[in-house]
Amino acid sequence: MRVARTNKRREVKDVIRKEMIAMLLAGGQGSRLGVLTAGVAKPAVAFGGKYRIIDFPLSNCINSGIDTVGVLTQYQPLRLNTHIGIGIPWDLDRNNGGVTILPPYEKSDNSEWYTGTANAVFQNMTYMESHHPEYVLILSGDHIYKMDYGTMLEFHKRQKADVTIATMPVPMEEAGRFGIVVTDENRRIEAFEEKPKEPRSNLASMGIYIFTWEVLKEALYTLRDQSGCDFGRHIIPYCHEKGLVLSAYEYNGYWKDVGTLGSYWEANMELVDLIPEFNLYEEYWKIYTRSDVIEPQYLAAGSVVEKSIIGEGCEIYGEVSHSVIGSGVCIGEGAVVRDSIIMKDTCIGEGARVEKAIIAEGCSIGKNVSLGAFAEAPNCLNASIYSFGLVTIGEDSVIPDGVAVGKNTAISGVTARDDYPEGILKSGGVLIKAGDIV
Question: Pairing relation of β-strands 430-432 and 255-257?
Fold first, then answer.
């Protein structure tokens, strides 16, 4: 009888064994997005009027045949958790595998936050071991791209690699801004260069890795006491120093790190090009997302919409040009919106003028407001974040009637007329109400 039970247990293990599982790192704040991520994790930020950033790696997984995904969350996880749910939109609602949210949790011997990308994965060793994978795919939850991870896995096998790093060629004059890998003629990695002054290669690491499971497990255990253990700074160099086989998989498709307000704005604006470089509507590689049941768009008589994406449930009474408009947005009569991203459930008042702005979810922009007025000036709080000539407005913010806001500005919170001297927030200004995070 004991033998029968053992055999039965072995059969169950055989059933749940997975060739490759994915660990999706989605716990980052994304501080370079400023007020957009004050109350939400970067992977949960809206993109393209309908999607959230995390939809892209999740869709890549299911399109690549990967049906077991652990999503590691930490910073402001509520909206991300709600969005993912049990994984229904991505066909990841499964008893065997599927999607699992993996926040930090209290253990019998210790309790700690995730302190680095590799540390986050190490703290979920039990989850990985339960699936008995042959390979583990490490992904970031904050990039916009389409990639067949199955093709990358086949490359990993052909190379007989222990670790494969996804890379993409960048212009040599820009290579100094990236982590660069140097390879031989067989795509074996010979050296790493972190933001080199004189790069010897133009292959930049994309932060996407495939590990043979036993290699990853050994490296994570060995470096488990390393403070802030990170894949790029610790795990990959450790594997290289051990003489393991590291290969570079070259990817030549569209890939965008939307980690800055400028790159986020640019990636959205590229979607409204006549022939967009990144096509959201390909039948053979769909991008899936959670979709609410919303009424159709309404374009009033006299409204004008050109070269824009308009989400479900929008009401357009004014003019929209070269913009991405999320679901449930209302744009009042006489309002003009140009070169802007307006996220869901925001209201733009009558007669308002919005130029090159990013307005987060649930905002109210008053009548006859002017956003993007005046000549540019450096931002007084953080010029490296609030730049690109943009107006950035955080979630649930209120802008009163009749005020003018300059470029390279940031606003967060419920503001009143008294917050704007002479009805103006000058270019480079910041208005963050008490309790809000910059």
Answer: unpaired
